[in-house]
Amino acid sequence: xxxxxxxxxxxxxxxxxxxxxxxxxxxxxxxxxxxxxxxxxxxxxxxxxxxxxxxxxxxxxxxxxxxxxxxxxxxxxxxxxxxxxxxxxxxxxxxxxxxxxxxxxxxxxxxxxxxxxxxxxxxxxxxxxxxxxxxxxxxxxxxxxxxxxxxxxxxxxxxxxxxxxxxxxxxxxxxxxxxxxxxxxxxxxxxxxxxxxxxxxxxxxxxxxxxxxxxxxxxxxxxxxxxxxxxxxxxxxxxxxxxxxxxxxxxxxxxxxxxxxxxxxxxxxxxxxxxxxxxxxxxxxxxxxxxxxxxxxxxxxxxxxxxxxxxxxxxxxxxxxxxxxxxxxx
Length: 330
Description:
The protein is α+β, with helices and mostly antiparallel strands and 330 residues long.
């Protein structure tokens, strides 16, 4: 029929366009130098990152038009990482597009597993293609790539180290000292035992000396929860029972799993709950873990009252507060 639609014909594969570097040795050498320059720039970017991390102080600022004042160290870290990653990627792409083998291969798709002969031929083809990539014949690219990859491997080591100092000193030392009063948070008001009813919970911090200011680091470590029960409800060893005062017991608020704030108290069950990963601690048994991923009880603070009747720490914490870690001595 005159109006019948003809089926679309298979146009076939377009003619293969050969690259200049395949036939011109000068063009191949130029491409090789370009790839090596990109890998070299990647190494320079990594060195810039390392220099910024080690030698530029974190509070140093620099003026940049349009942006204004910005942190010099942060700018160096960002620019160094951007240059390192971009140039090593661009170099790899340029290498693949200009120097690596440019042969078009058609492989028929099979629905089932190929036979052993075809699989062996495939392995041989892959190995031959790897050797044909020319890495062994192009020492300039090999050396520049090795430098770029080697230096870029230092980047995660620096950034991981910057997560903070090892927790040994920070978690074994708090601001609690013998005789330090417990004060409300917020408010900084000293607490007497009669201020807490049975079942009450209060968040406290150590009282500061005149003229002293709290730091965020200390606030994160020093927070203590006060909980008042009836003395007969405790199931403690004689030593731990002596650390309480008239049914008031004190625990570090920092979860022993991942350092979250233990902020929920179930008055009926007398359980403390960490909202991050649901670690649950039994207050009547010195905050023993009864559920969740925490590996140890919350550290207990030994408390008493001073001559004026205010709650004070009898001793500092006898163990590191916060998450468990590999350098814990107890």
